[in-house]
Fold this protein.
Amino acid sequence: MSTRRAFLKTGVVFCSCALLNTAHAQQAGARSLPISIKGRRVKTIDIHAHCHFREAGVLLGAEAASIQAPSVVRGAEEAFIEIDKRLKAMDAQAVDMEVLSINPFWYGKDRELAGQIVKIQNEKLAELCASKPDRFAAFASLTLQAPDLAVTELETAVKKQGLKGAAIGGQVAGMEFSDPKLHPVWAKAEELGVPLFIHPQGAPELGKRLSGNGWLGNTIANPLETTIALSHLIFEGTLDRFPGLKVIAAHGGGYLPSYADRADHACMVGPKGCDPDVKLNKKPTEYLQQLYFDSLIFSPEAIRHLVAQVGSSQVVLGSDYPYPWQLHPVDHIFACSTLSDDEKAAILGNTAAKLLKLAA
């Protein structure tokens, strides 16, 4: 099918990232497909990859340009999918399958508009994945500001559209994920046995302090928001209420795994800052063993530390493509000398295959 015909049919355009079409993509030592460990084929599954749909943007009018493709972000134009070029990019990254998601830009919209955006996105995600089921899976979008609608959307996405869970932000227009209003959504995800992928949106309330050089609104604020979201889920007892809830945190879980042990001492040192009516079932750090974390933390040493803190069974591959944070996500897993072959295989794809109920 031609590129033009593919776009007209799916409304999706994948454009290959220019960075992946340079010598950088073919750097010495970079892994290539197929990936094998001791002669056994491993299906690599990148659970952190993005796309956008123009049909959803139409509903936003003039606002679409700033939300869907911010010109200051490299790779943003490649979020509109042209399938053959995206596949070439995946091959260059040694990625067999991408699990696509869309960062929520609709939480501040009214129920009707947000619901229309989500409906279009989930239909287009399902259509795309059905066209290349061996290469693409996806997390559904949800209208979380309307929890009753989100419950219906999630059930439809999983049972009728073949989507593998849902992607959510780090909060919902100021409402933390521990808010009881969202309990029905978490209960439905637990019932369906599907994961929720937390991808942060930053911390706009810190805009003044994060201004200046270094893109701190992303560099610092994105991992910070994930840290806050996970901490609320732990300390408010949400993970106790929904012990079967599967949560995957982007960017290695933010800062939480790097300084998790402080959480075990907080209520002892500052008891007035802790609600005596909230009785956790275990130490805060122990909840990390029931969460999942992507590997987008850039180095073998960072992987070693994350695994030491949460266990290798809780880490899955992530790249953030098409945004060029880490163009060779497989390589630093192989470079982590503290991982066994089985642990490498698990991180590269076996764990994600089990979480998403995919063939490994």
Remarks:
- The first strand starts at residue 35 and ends at 37.
- Residues 1-25 have pLDDT under 50 and may be disordered.
- The longest helix spans residues 111-131.
